[in-house]
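TA notes, week 10

Several of you asked for a full example with nothing omitted. So below is the full record: structure tokens for the whole chain, then the designed sequence directly under it. When grading your own attempts, check the secondary structure regions first.
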């Protein structure tokens, strides 16, 4: 269970006079990250449940289950219910996020686990994986590096394993794309974010989070070596893809 500090309210973009820089996964973000996800990701808890269910379908005794972009370790903690005897491996480029993950997991999970600091824009090592998860992570990798990242994941996933990918996406049609974004912002307002907070965060993410169309992610996964790709979740401008090795 997350501590009171980890459940702190996200007010990062509530101060209008504060300069807006690029969104960063720093200590300030880590301290409110769970609240940010709960209020910013539609069906967040259901997505987590689906990830665990699908992971259980593919996990194999003696293998590793990776969470690539593990942030504060919530998904790794959820994966601890897997009945198979696996090692949980979390990778993130933020030491602040990994510190939070360490606090969450220490003494609280039955599976052995490993937390690694790593920049996906540089290199990625995946070994003996039956399942790899990338939840809202690939969208933050520089576009020129994404296919290489997926290829390295595919190389490290065992035959009959899978990659579970959650991403923000854009629609082909500009009208639909505008409507989806509008309804997403309405979702955030229902969860307590003000119009100013939404606008300021959108500006902070503009050059950091670059979404693709679902079919672009599908094509990248296939070029990277995955043999089968299917969409298992879709809500306006969010989707979940499963890719089979």
């Amino acid at each position: 269970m997350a501590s009171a500090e980890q459940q702190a309210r996200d007010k990062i973009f509530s101060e209008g006079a504060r300069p807006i820089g690029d969104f960063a996964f720093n200590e300030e973000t880590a301290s409110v990250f769970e609240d940010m996800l709960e209020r910013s990701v539609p069906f967040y808890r259901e997505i987590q449940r689906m990830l665990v269910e699908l992971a259980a379908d593919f996990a194999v005794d003696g293998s590793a289950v990776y969470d690539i972009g593990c942030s504060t370790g919530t998904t790794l903690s959820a994966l601890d219910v897997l009945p198979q005897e696996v090692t949980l491996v979390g990778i993130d480029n933020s030491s602040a996020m990994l510190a939070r993950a360490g606090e969450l997991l220490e003494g609280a999970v039955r599976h052995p686990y490993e937390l690694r600091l790593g920049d996906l824009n540089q290199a990625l090592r995946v070994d003996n994986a039956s399942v790899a998860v990338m939840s809202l992570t690939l969208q933050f990798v520089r576009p020129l590096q994404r296919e290489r990242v997926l290829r390295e994941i595919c190389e490290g996933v065992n035959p009959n394993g899978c990659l579970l990918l959650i991403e923000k996406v854009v629609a082909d049609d500009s009208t639909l794309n505008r409507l989806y974004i509008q309804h997403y912002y309405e979702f955030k307002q229902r969860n307590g974010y003000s119009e100013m907070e939404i606008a300021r965060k959108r500006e902070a993410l503009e050059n950091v989070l670059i979404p693709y169309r679902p079919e672009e992610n599908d094509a990248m996964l296939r070029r990277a070596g995955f043999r089968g790709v299917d969409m298992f979740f879709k809500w306006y401008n969010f989707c979940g893809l499963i890719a089979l090795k």
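Helices lie at 27-40, 44-58, 74-78, 95-105, 143-156, 174-190, 195-205, 214-223. Use that as a sanity check on your answer.
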